[in-house]
Amino acid sequence: MKFASFDFNLDESNVVAFGVPLGKNPNKSLQSLRYVSQFVEPMDLDSGVNLLENVKLHDSGDMELTSLDRITEETKKILQMNKPPLILGGNHLLSLYSLKAFENVKLVVFDAHGDFKNSYDDEKIREMNEGFYNPNINDATWLRRVSEFIKPENIMLLGVRSCDEFELNDLKKSGIKYFTSRKIIENQEVLEQIKEFTKNSRVYISFDVDVFDPSICPAVDMPEPDGIFFNNFQKMMQSVNGKIVGIDVCCLNSQDNEISEFLIARSVFEILHKI
């Protein structure tokens, strides 16, 4: 099953997708997202634009995840073809390994969580990182590790609303630009900040779907209250003012309904439209 029913071969494509079966129920979630994406209309009625009109996507299916370094290797292969990868996951740890394949990028992260702890261990994190657990390298620490090879001033975190006081203090001192979901909803200046941050830049979008309010996106591992809504996400993506060179979509944990999948697929269309 292909994402959004795309059937372009590798040579004629301008985006290459692959799945990373990492996290809790990854195979079910990846299958569900691909299935639902086939029924989401790409036409934006307000703008009169087909969001996927210029997108030629090749979906190579799910990779065999024998090691986390395989994510980096697969990403590098796609970049060597001068095409942006669309990485469907899986938990947020995958972003650490995909980003190792990139140079000279601005990182825009949509996420409810800071993920900036230096080390973290609890039962839920162990479960989410099953098979690849490390207290220093997991869902709660991945952005801290990324800031060790991408300059913090080249990282923007959008929609954050959950971290402890020590993590928040480190985030403030780091130089990472961050905006809470409340600031995004109440302050239009955020859109100008995104536009300026991404201007004339190579941009990687890391889209953790728990950035949305759980009332509209319940199928996540950590559903934090007071999140953003689709129109907020849409406006922020429209404000991205650079060249998107990589995308990952992570942290879907499919349930018995398809509410979250429909929202996520439509949101991915918004990102793809910017390529």
Keywords:
275 residues, Arginase, Chain A, alpha/beta, two-stranded antiparallel sheet
What can you see in these coordinates?
- With 275 residues, the protein is an alpha/beta fold.
- The protein has one domain (3-273): 3-Layer(aba) Sandwich (Arginase, Chain A), CATH 3.40.800.
- It is 34% helix and 19% strand.
- It has 10 helices and 10 strands.
- It has helices at 26-37, 69-80, 93-99, 123-128, 142-146, 165-174, 181-186, 189-198, 230-239, 259-273; strands at 15-20, 43-44, 49-50, 57-62, 85-89, 106-110, 155-160, 177-180, 202-208, 243-250.
- The strands form 2 sheets. The protein has an 8-stranded parallel beta sheet with strand order 4-1-5-10-9-6-7-8, sandwiched between helices. The chain has a two-stranded antiparallel sheet with strand order 2-3.
- β9, α9 and β10 form a beta-alpha-beta unit.
- α1 (26-37) crosses α10 (259-273) and α2 crosses α3 (93-99).
- The longest helix is centred in the last third of the chain and has 15 residues, at 259-273.
- The chain is globular, with a radius of gyration of 17 Å.
- The chain starts with 14 loop residues before the first strand and ends with a helix.
- The model has no long low-confidence stretch (mean pLDDT 95).
